[in-house]
Structure formats: C-alpha cells, structure tokens
User: Fold this.
Amino acid sequence: MSTDPEPGSVIVVGGGVVGLACAHYLTDDGLSVTVIDRGAAGGACSAGNCGYICPSHVLPLTEPGAIRMALKSLLNPRAPFRVRPRLSPAMWRWFWQFARRCTHRQMLAAGVHLKAILDSSMSEYRRLVAAEQLACGWESRGLLYVLLTSHGMQEFAATDRLLTEHFGVAARRIEGDQLPELDAALRPGLAGAFLYEDDAHLRPAALTTNWAARLRERGVQIREQCEVEAIVKDGGAVTGLRTNQGVLRAERYVIAAGAWSAQLAGELGCRIPIEPGKGYSVTTTRPEPCPTYPILFPEHRVGATPFADAYRLGSMMEFVGFDDSIPAARIAQLRESAAPYLVTPSGEQEIDRWYGWRPMTPDSLPIIGPAPGLANVLLATGHNMLGMSLATATGKLTAELLAGRSPHIDAAPFSPQRFQ
Ligand SMILES: Cc1cc2nc3c(=O)[nH]c(=O)nc-3n(C[C@H](O)[C@H](O)[C@H](O)COP(=O)(O)OP(=O)(O)OC[C@H]3O[C@@H](n4cnc5c(N)ncnc54)[C@H](O)[C@@H]3O)c2cc1C
Assistant:
C-alpha cells in the first residue's frame, strides 16, 4: 500500500465473459488492465451455458404472469423454475422488487432498454469476430423457437406480434409440416416454429478461452485463483483490493463478479441486488441427426445448441442460493424435455454435466455504471439470462463511462443508482 498505483491502471474483478469484454474495451483505450478471478477465467457461469447471442430476447423475465407461474411451480418439483424458501431477507426483498415490475407497462419499458444494449452487443460481436478472428464457433443461423401444440403456437404468435409491433423484431413463421424439411432433427407432427434470423450462437468456453489468450497478447494480466477478500477505501475511493495474493492496487476498478457481486456490496458500501439463478446443462456428442439450428422449446423451457463437435441441452432457473449440487433428476429432465421435439434428444456419450449461477437482478436489466459513493469504481454485472449476448456492449459502455466519453447508448437505465 506504500506506492501510488500505476497511471492508467485498471483492475477488473471477475474473469467471466463480462469481465473479459470490459478488459478488451479498456485496453482499446490504452489502459493497463489486470483481470483477477478467484477461479479460472471463464470458468463460472460463462462456461457451460447455451451460447445464444440473441437480440430476439428483448422481453424481460418481469412479465405479467411471471408471479403466477412462480407460485404454480412451488407445487411442482419438475417445474423448470424453482424457489427454495429460506430465511434470506435479501432474497425476499429481491422477489418483492421483481413482483412489483411484472406489469405490461414495465415489461415494455425494460424491453426498450434491453433492445438497445442487445442490438449494440450484436453489432460489436459481428465486428469483433471478423476483426479479431476470435475462434469461438460463431454461427449466424438464427434462433429457432419450436412449438409442440397449436395452443403453444397461438401463444407464441402473440409474443411474436408484440415483438414485431413494439420492437421491430420479426421472425419467419414456419408451419409444422415444413419443419422436417427445415431441420431433419425435428420430429414430424410438431405445430410449427418461429425463426429469428438475426440471432447467432457460439461455443461459450471457446470464446472465453480464446478471448483471454488474445487479451494476454495485448498485455492484459490475468491473475487466476486470486480472490478479493476485502476492499480498502479511503475518502470515497477504493485504494486497494485485499486478495489471497496480497494487496492489489490500481487507479480504477471494475466489479464484474457475476452472481457473487452482491457479496462485495457491503465492502463497496452500495446496494447490488443480485440473486444467483441456477441453471443446468448437459453436453454430449452430437446426436444423429443433430439439429442444424440452435433451438428453444418454449413450452418445455429447454434449449438445444449444436456445436461443431458437440451438442448441449440447457435450462432451469432455481433460486436455491449457492447450492452447487447437480441432481441427476434435473439432467434427466433436460433430455426428457427435448424428447417430444427431437428424433434423437441427445448424443450417445455424455461429455459434461454443468450448473451455473446467473446474476439475476429484480428488473431484468444489467447493472452498469459508477458505483454510488465511490469515485473510481464501476459495476458491470447483473446480466441475468443474457450475459453472453450483452457482454460486448457492456465492455464498450464500461470503457466509455470510465473515460468520461458520452456513451453510445443511453446508460441511465443500467445505472447502479436505481437501486440506492
Ligand atoms: C443454463 C444456462 C444457460 C444460459 N444460456 C445463455 C445464452 O444462451 N445466452 C446468454 O446470453 N446467456 C446465457 N446464460 C447466462 C450467462 O451465462 C450469464 O449471464 C453470464 O455468463 C454472466 O457472465 P459474468 O461474467 O457476469 O459472470 P461469470 O461468468 O459467473 O463470471 C464472474 C466471475 O467472477 C469471479 N469472482 C466472483 N467473486 C470474486 C471475488 N471475490 N474475487 C475474484 N473473482 C471473483 C468468479 O470466479 C467468476 O469467474 C445462461 C446461463 C445458464 C445458467
């Protein structure tokens, strides 16, 4: 703590996709960046997710009917959504804030802000994937929403209409009898589908591994197994991070600690209402036939993603704290949920079973901007179910805010100030 921090130095806490994206745009500005992670960079929620980069996902979780669905799921152990009631005032406050926002008006308002950051992120991804030649399995095939029943088709058609009318997000409607021709992995007899052609997908771990390697080449220091244990402050600014590898200092700090960000809130002295929303995936060899499109099955709330040499099913949203178990029943449920739709719901050999804790905010918007009360700290966290999709614009916005430039999209809706 004796020397002054290096001029232009920034420490990013958290080496998930969001922290890596922040590091990328901060180095574009010529800053000297260190990323620290208590585990391996890219090893937490950014590892085994479905990998959709999906500007079609403009509707927030806070929608009318979300609370009814949550209450119904309390009685159904197989529901993809699950809450384990526990004595956590922070969790109940979170649910209260969430419930208040489940109105049509709030849904549309949040959707406007999500659309701005989703679109920006997609154009940044397209630019980066081409310019940096990041090997991440990027494919621009769109995202296919497949419906089993005519009721499901009708309900989804209403959602699609809303997306088109309010947000200009349009899909190609495909009738059930055309589906086997579109993708031979789909079973005959399905009701239909909507293809959002502007979406893309990638292999999450390939993105984070190769991005981290690129950042190292650019001079970014990535310190793994380095955990922030305490934050040292002086006069409204952070002066150092006490870690298991000693005290680290920089001029500025970015907190991108995903689902764990709330644990640093006390140290930072501001409110960061993030709850871990646990999801699971199972990765197998490619089934035969393997879907050619990444697919979501809204009626069963499960997603399937084809990769060049593997295949993944992912789903579930559990509010169970930081429970790190992977129940065999949940993995079996992923396969069973895909079975009504796919000729072969999963590949012969299992490669990996995985869980991740999504950083969930009560208003479905990420938290990006200056930490209240601290002159040299920015938060870049709370990306809910869309951290892969939102990472690039988050990095860009963080660099702009840190430099004091005017942001390329309205940053106010994402400000941490909204929760103080
Ligand atoms: C089943 C599932 C499917 C999903 N599918 C998609 C999808 O298709 N598309 C999409 O856009 N999103 C998807 N998501 C959401 C996405 O995975 C997350 O939003 C995203 O990974 C969050 O990234 P992050 O960098 O904020 O967090 P993380 O990747 O969790 O990174 C946070 C990092 O901070 C580190 N850290 C925490 N505390 C400390 C500390 N005190 N000191 C040092 N380091 C610390 C952690 O070790 C961790 O590596 C999915 C999630 C799940 C669970």
About this structure: The two ends are 30 Å apart (CA to CA).
